[in-house]
Hints:
This protein is an alpha/beta fold. Among the domains are: 2-56, Single Sheet (N-terminal domain of TfIIb), CATH 2.20.25; 157-332, 3-Layer(aba) Sandwich (Dimethylsulfoxide Reductase, domain 2); 580-736, Barwin-like endoglucanases (Beta Barrel), CATH 2.40.40. The chain is 31% helix and 16% strand. The protein is built from 26 helices and 29 strands. The strands form 8 sheets. The chain has an 8-stranded mixed beta sheet. A 6-stranded mixed barrel has the order 22-26-23-25-24-29. The chain has a 4-stranded parallel beta sheet with strand order 11-10-9-13. Helix 9 (211-215) links the parallel strand 10 and strand 11. Helix 3 (78-96) crosses helix 20, helix 6 (140-150) packs across helix 15 and helix 10 packs across helix 13 (278-290).
Amino acid sequence: MTKTVNTYCRICVATCGLNVTVDEETNAVLDIEPDRENPYTWRDFCRKGKTANEVATHPQRITTPMRRVGDRYVPATYEEATADIAARLNAIIERDGPDAVGSYNGNPMGFTFSITAWWTGLLDAIGTGNRFWVGSIDQNNAHVVAEHLYGNELVSLVPDIDHCGFFLFVGMDPATSKFNWMENNPSGWNRVLEKQRAGATVVVVDPRRSVSAETADQHLAVLPGGDWALLLSLVKVILEERLERPADNLPLTGLEDARRFVGEFDGEQLATLAGVEREVLADLARRFAAAPTAMCVTHTGVSMNEHGTIGEWLSHTLNLITGRIDNPGGRRFERGFVDIALVMKMFAPAAEHHTRLRGNPTIAGFHSIAELPDEITTAGKGQIRGFLMAFGNPVVSGPDGQALDDALQDLDLLVAIDLVQRESHRHADWLIPGTHWLEREDLHPLFANLQERPYVNYAEKAIDPPAGVKEEWEFFADLALAMDRNLFGKPGVNRIIRASRRLAKLTGRPKLAMNPEWVQRLMVRIGRRIRWKDIKAHPHGWIFGEPEYGDLAGILATDDKRVQLAPRAFLDATREAVAAPPVTGDEFPLLLTTKRIREAMNSWLNESDGLFRPERTNVLEMNGSDAAALGVRDGDLVRVRSATGKIELRARLSDVMRPGTVCAPHGWGSRIFDPAGTAPPRSYGTNRNLLVSNTRLDRFSQTPALNSTAVSVELATDRLPDRQVEVEGRSDDIRSSVRSVNA
C-alpha cells in the first residue's frame, strides 16, 4: 500500500514543497514530485529534490555507530559510543579546558531546525567557543555588513522582483542558482525574465558569460575579485553627480561622509581595478539611479573574495543612497513569524569569543574554517584536541584541504556524524549515523525572514530512518547527559530532559519528552503572528499575509537606531584595497574563479549519480586565447598550480571566460569510504580548493579567496603520483586526489 506525504526539501533555502510517494510496507520512497498545491514554492522543483532518496539509500550509508579499531571500523551500540565519547571529551576538557574541543557543521544540517538547535545546545553544554561552520566559505560577509549597517547579523533583505524595473546582479548566476542564496524568491529567474519581456533592464556582472549573462541586456565581464571596485565606481558617480535619493522610511547617517570618501579615488583607477571601462560604469550608474525602481543584488561571486565584505557593503550603499531598501521594487525586510531579536539571543549570541592565534571574533556564532588547521596543530592553551564534525566535509569545502587533513589525523578524538564516511571523516575515531531529511519532521523558524512573502510550511516525515538510528538531536542530548553537562549550558535543563523522558515512557506519549517541537512552538508563540495549529492545518504550506514595506526601520539595533552608511572600518579597508598590489604576477598570471552548479551544494550531492557525472562539470574552463598561448587544446590534461598547491584537470576551451581567467567549480575531490572495509573508496573528481590559501582572507568575514586565486596552467607532461586507495591510510597525501574519475 502506498501513501503520499506532504513535506518540503531541506537541501537549500528554497525549501520546495514536495509530494513523496512511499511504499508503507517496505518504507521505500517510490517517487518525489513537486507539491503543486503549495501556493509558494513548487515551480522551483529541481533534480536535487527529485533524486534525494539516492542519498538516503546510499550503499555505503552508516546505519550504526562505528568505532575505529586499528585501521578498520567495527559496529557498536549508541550506549557504547555515547559513554566512550563522553568520557574522552570530559578528559580533554578537564585537562585543557572547554576550548580544547572544537566543532564544525556543514550544509546538510543547516536546513533542519532540530539538528541546528540541539547542536548549539551540545556546544553550549561543552562550553567551547571553538565553533567553525560552512557559512565562512561564502556568506559571512553578509552577516558582517548587516551587523555594521543595521546592528543585527541576521538581517537579510529579499529582492522584490515583481515591482522592479532595473536588475543589477553582481557575482551571481540566477538562471542556475534559481535566485536563491540567503533569501528565497520562488521561480525568481523566470519572473525576472517576465519583467525583462515587459521592459525591465537586466545587467549581469560576472567574469564568466553564464547562462544568466547570455540572457541579460548587458554583461560586464568584471575582473575576478574586482566587484568592489565596480560598485565603488557606481557609488562615486551617483554621489559626485548628486543623483542620490535616499528613502524617507529608513533613517540614515553617514551620507556626507560617504560623499567625501568617494572623492578620494580616481575613476580611471577604479575602472582598471574592476576591469571594466570607466565610461561603461558611469553610464550604468546613471541608468541605475534614474530608474523608477531598481535593485542591486550580490551573491557568492562577490562574497568569496579577499574584499568580499567591501563589495557587499557597497552594494547595500548603492541601494540605500538610491532608495532601493524596503521600498517596492528594491530589497525588503520580511519579518516572518518569529522575533528576530529573540533568534539572535538564542542562536547567534554576541561575538564574545576570539580565535587564540589570529584573534578573530565569531560571525553569527562561528569561526572561519580557514583558521581550523592552525588551531589544531599549534600547541598552547586552548589548542583543539577533540573535534565534533556534523554533516560537513571541510577538507573539500574549505581552503587548503591538505593542511586540514594533516591536522585532523593528529587529534586525540574525532567524531563524525553523517550519512556516509566522506573525505573529512577518514581519520575519525567514531562514526555516528545521521538521518536524512526525508526521515525527519521539521519547522524551521530561522528561515521565516528569508522568504519573499509571509510564508510557513511544516515538513512531515516521509519515511522512517533505518532501524535503530537515532535522530541527531536525541544523540546530542544523550551526549550532554552522559557528560553531565547541561544542554544549552543552562542549569537544570538535564533534569528536565530526564524527568520528561520518564513521563513520556510512563504515559506512552513520546512527545512529552523534551524535543525540538517545544522550542519551535515557543518561537511561534512569541512571534505573535500565527498559531501552531494553523500551521499544521496547512499541509501544503501557507501564505499568511501580504508583503509589507518599512519594517526594517523598526528592528534597527544600531546605537542611534539609524543605518550606518559609512562605517570607518569599511572606509579604511577600501583605501587599502585600492592601494594593494595586484594578485597575479609572472609566476601565477591567471585568476581562478568558481561557478555555481545547480545540482550540488558545496561538496554535498556531488556523489549522487542520478544528478550528473563529474566528467561533465569537473573541468577547467579556459579562454581560447589563453589556451593557445600555452599550447593547450580542448580536452588536454593540464596542471594548475598556485602558491598553495597543484592539481590536474581536463581543459575545456570556451569563449565564455574572460581572458586571463580560468574557472573550476569547487566541491569536488571527495571520496566515499566503506567503513566496513569490504570495498575500496570511490573518488569523485578533483578538489580545486587545494589551490586556495587559508591565510589570504577577507579581513572582516574571514572568507578565503575561492573566487580570485592566482594560478598558472601548463600541459601535464608528467603525472602526479596516484593516490592510494586504502580506507584509512594515514600516509595518504590528499594532494594526489587529482586522480579523478574524469582524468
